[in-house]
């Protein structure tokens, strides 16, 4: 558990380092919310903050044997987090300058249908849910995993609802794109 938890922290640090460097353009790096953001960026920030606190608290929970899972769950979590990180980076690369921190539309933006966007409308968000859930699983503590998963999915659900409303109002072809893609998980949602 100690090794997987430390590896989870390392993945989180790697994500933090990579995330800021792979964004292209000033709009993509800006924290200034667009008119459609509806505080979704703040909710995501809050979810991330709570997750970090829980990841740190996992040491104490595991020390007192509260919510401990088998060690193999930690290793599975590492694999899930790495897959999520790769999906996030791939999504970012495909969107390029259109990949922004807050909900906003860049001038002349079109609906992207390449790469993971052929099947999934929000692969970057799926990647982040996998990253946070994988890192939480790496602690091998079901309490941490459950809370991180629920809060992360909830924050991204709210974000997706707002983002899809924004895209429907700004792109007449987005509705057609929705009809043959999945929000996050093919054949499920």
Account of the protein in words:
This protein is mainly α and 189 residues long. The chain has one domain (2-179): Four Helix Bundle (Hemerythrin (Met), subunit A). 66% of the residues lie in helices and 0% in strands. The protein contains seven helices and no strands. Helix 1 packs parallel to helix 4. It is elongated and about 55 Å long. The two termini are 32 Å apart.
Structural key phrases:
mainly alpha, 189 residues, Four Helix Bundle (Hemerythrin (Met), subunit A)
**How big is the Rg?**
17 Å
Kindly provide the name of the CATH class. Mainly Alpha
Share of residues in strands: under 5%
What is the CATH architecture assignment?
A: Up-down Bundle
Count of discrete alpha- or pi-helical segments spanning 4 or more residues: 7
Query: Residue share in helices?
Result: 55-70%
Q: Spans of 5+ residues with little confidence (pLDDT < 50)?
A: none
The total strand number stands at 0
Cα shape: elongated
Helix-strand pattern, N to C?
HHHHHHH
How many strands, which pairing sense, and closed or not: the largest β-sheet?
none
- How would you classify the helix and strand content by structural class? mainly alpha
CATH level-3 fold name: Four Helix Bundle (Hemerythrin (Met), subunit A)
Q: Quote the distance from N terminus to C terminus.
A: 32 Å
Overall mean pLDDT: 92
How many domains comprise the coordinates? 1
